[in-house]
Design brief:
Radius of gyration: 22 Å
Shape: globular
Structural class: alpha/beta
Number of helices: 9
Largest sheet: 7 strands, mixed
Strand content: 5-15%
Number of strands: 14
Helix content: 25-40%
Order of helices and strands: HEHEHEEEEEEEHEEHHEEHHEH
Length: 389
């Protein structure tokens, strides 16, 4: 690469972390001035605000009226674990894993729950397994969007409408950025700190009528911790799905979630969020298409994530380094950009191949991504000039 001049324009915000993600444009602490603090979350107003979080998410995401929606502890991880420990074991299960979190769910199913008839179908980073080979007589656990690989399922066409098993979907970096086909999904989970830029520690779980039927007619062979229990006496605990949370939530985080949801509603709802996300993804793809050193980790354009954009360095100089030095060089590139104050927290996930991961969800401004792109070229030129292995 030839000597590059330092770009003149800088992103207004350098926040491109994949979680917790950037707050909505214009956010400030004043948005939380009306938080229901110092009061019980079980007071009428506390429950009403929690119920509003549920109702707004149902409205924005178009979740069917007969699907239950609950706020649960432990972020998306807690919501997925609640589903796995409460629902699995009634029939054989398949776990699809093509990135870190899917691999984590597979570990839980095989090594923690120790289910006898469990299979794990894997694919490498940047790839998807053969979705059309999935047997829907089995329960199936999968991530809609692989946050650590930048790979998403392209649609729900591969999910059988007449499935016998449950479709259990971790949608934490997909919800509010992609269309989720609810009639093809039985359990869906996500967290507040991804596409809407909310605060961490709270998760969402959505249950179809088929999932509720499973809960009410199946008792796992193992004991369930209190924070996982969704039934009592063989019946669903309906209060969980009306804002009566299992444990004490942060009402400050609840206020922040309401602020984000109202922003999304004023933006035009899900369509507006998707449009912003797609514009952000295009700002990156326009740059990558012209780059001679950077490409997508996802090999097929049809399943590239528009939110967690994972990029690999393809330049011969870089690929000629040892794996250890590739990791070192990628981290140094991230450090160069961070020290310049143009991009923070854009390194690849710790288990993923060395490279970059840029969040492009709806709370990120497209102009900031456009301004960031020349800095990637400049930072890489600086890396090549100064790197010593």
């Amino acid at each position: 690469m030839t000597e590059l001049m330092r770009p003149e324009r800088r992103p207004n915000s350098p926040l491109f972390s994949s979680g917790p993600c950037a707050k909505r444009p214009g956010w400030s602490l004043e948005a939380l001035n009306n938080a229901f603090l110092g009061r019980s979350h079980r007071a009428a107003e506390g429950k009403a605000r929690l119920k509003s979080v549920i109702d707004l998410q149902r409205e924005l995401l178009g979740i069917p009226a007969d699907y239950r929606i609950g706020i649960v502890p432990g972020s998306d991880t807690g919501a997925v674990e609640m589903a796995l420990w409460s629902l699995l074991g009634a029939r054989p299960v398949t776990v699809l894993a093509w990135e870190s979190f899917g691999s984590g769910w597979a570990t839980d199913v095989v090594k923690q729950l120790k289910l006898d008839d469990a299979e794990v179908v894997t694919a490498g980073y940047g790839q998807l397994p053969d979705l059309n080979a999935v047997d829907w007589k089995r329960d199936v656990v999968f991530t809609w969007n692989g946050t650590t690989s930048g790979v998403r399922v392209p649609n729900a066409d591969w999910i059988a409408a007449d499935r016998e098993g449950l479709a259990i979907c971790d949608a934490t970096s997909a919800a509010f950025a992609m269309d989720l086909e609810w009639d093809k999904l039985d359990v869906v989970t996500w967290s507040w700190q991804k596409v809407l830029g909310g605060e961490a520690a709270h998760g969402m779980i959505v249950l179809s009528p088929r999932a509720v039927e499973r809960l009410e007619n199946y008792t796992p062979a193992w004991p369930l911790p209190k924070v996982f229990r969704m039934t009592k006496g063989g019946k669903l605990i309906e209060g969980i799905f009306k804002g009566e949370t299992i444990n004490t939530p942060s009402m400050l985080a609840v206020e922040d979630a309401l602020d984000a949801l109202n922003w999304a509603k004023n933006l035009g709802g899900l369509d507006g969020l998707i449009a912003r996300t797609n514009a952000n993804a295009k700002a990156i793809s326009d740059f990558v298409e012209k780059s001679d050193w950077l490409d997508y980790l996802a090999e097929n354009e049809a399943y590239r994530s528009p939110t967690s954009v994972c990029l690999k360095i393809t330049d011969d100089w870089f690929t000629g380094l040892s794996d250890e030095d590739q990791s070192k060089a990628a981290k140094e590139l991230v450090s160069i950009l961070s020290k310049e104050g143009v991009a923070l927290d854009i390194g690849a996930y710790r288990d993923a191949p060395a490279g970059l991961r840029i969040w492009a969800g709806a709370t990120v401004e497209t102009a900031d991504l456009v301004d960031l792109m020349p800095w990637l070229d400049w930072g890489y030129a600086e890396l090549k000039k100064n790197f010593s292995n």
